[in-house]
Amino acid sequence: MRYEVVFHTTYTEDGRRLGDPTELLRLPAGVIRERSAVRVDPPLELEYPEQTEGEDLLDFAGTETWEYEVADGREQEFVEAAKNCPEVIEFSEIPQAA
Question: Could you tell me the pTM of the whole model?
Answer without folding.
Answer: 0.81
